[in-house]
Design a protein that fits this description.
alpha/beta, 20% strand, globular
């Protein structure tokens, strides 16, 4: 590891982990430690990525390991380890097996990188980030879940495809749990500042909402495994906001203590990410219908978290 560079540990060297390592290199966010329990996988992926550095123009170092010792002193820890979804499975079906994996990782992070900013990707997201916080004992500003960034990106992409306007001009916010009852906030979706309904009928908007909610399952149905490029890109957006103190407003699974009427749980809400981690929760002025939809989504999250016995 180079002196002065940030250290980013990626726990899980599967498809998302490998893509994360490549994106870290492309953006030169910091030196990378790629960790996986399968011998040869993190080492092989790191070697492959190292060979691409001259072409990518990146000087960061990438190390592949099978133990956690090399992660000591990490500035950022990103957790993707866990069983992926298969056809016919919901995200919630993974809770029992991935809970044990997350608990073990949290213990290692607590011991080796007590000052790290932790981003959890493993599903079921809202429950797994809860496990990470409980076991690590980290403050709420340093443990966050990737969910709404991805869901919002999917929504924006679908809108862009439908209306033929650049994704860069489409603003959106998808809140709630990272599941089929997530809540695209249509009142806050605009195209260059113009309300979405100016461009699309309610029928088409409803179809895009439904597709966004089911987008993860759509990918699983086609690939027979979970998505990896778009989740990785979403996580990198979050990590970059922290490492470069960008003060970005992003929809993420954050620990709430009264905001939106929720206390003691993680839920997808708008937050500001900067050098202080989760620097604040942004409370949107929701109408009654939006509040009801968010509470419905939260009820599902609460049920899944209740099944987690620590």
């Amino acid at each position: 590891m180079a002196l002065g560079r940030k250290k980013i540990s990626l726990i899980g060297a599967g498809a998302i982990g490998g893509t994360l390592a490549h994106l870290c290199a492309l953006k030169e966010l910091g030196d990378v430690v790629l960790v996986d329990i399968v011998e040869g996988v993190p080492q092989g992926k790191s070697l492959d990525l190292l060979a691409a550095r001259p072409i990518d123009g990146s000087d960061i170092h990438i190390t592949g390991v099978n133990d956690y010792a090399a992660t000591r002193g990490s500035d950022v820890v990103i957790v993707t380890a866990g069983l992926p979804r298969r056809p016919g499975m919901s995200r919630d079906d993974l809770v029992d097996k991935n809970k044990g994996i997350m608990k073990g990782i949290a213990e290692q992070v607590r011991e080796l990188s007590p000052d790290a900013f932790v981003i959890v990707v493993t599903n079921p997201l809202d429950a797994m980030v809860y496990v990470m916080k409980r076991v690590s004992g980290f403050p709420k500003n340093r443990v966050v879940g990737m969910a709404g960034v991805l869901d919002t990106s999917r929504f924006r992409s679908f809108v862009s495809n439908e209306i033929g306007i650049s994704v860069q001009d489409i603003t959106a916010m998808v809140l709630g749990g990272h599941g089929d009852d997530m809540v695209p906030m249509l009142r806050f979706c605009t195209v260059a500042g113009v309300p979405l309904e100016h461009f699309l009928s309610q029928e088409k908007i409803d179809a895009i909402v439904k597709r966004t909610q089911m987008a993860g399952g759509e990918v699983v149905g086609l690939l027979k495994t979970s998505a990896w490029v778009s989740p990785a890109a979403s996580v990198i957006d979050m990590a970059e906001a922290y490492l470069r103190d960008k003060k970005r407003v992003m929809a993420c699974a954050a620990y709430l203590e009264g905001e939106y009427g929720i206390d003691g749980y993680y839920l997808g809400v708008p937050i500001v990410i900067g050098a202080g981690g989760v620097e604040r929760v942004v409370e949107l002025p929701l109408n009654e219908a939006e509040k009801s939809a968010l509470q419905t989504s939260f009820a599902r999250v609460k049920d899944v978290v209740a099944s987690v016995q620590l």
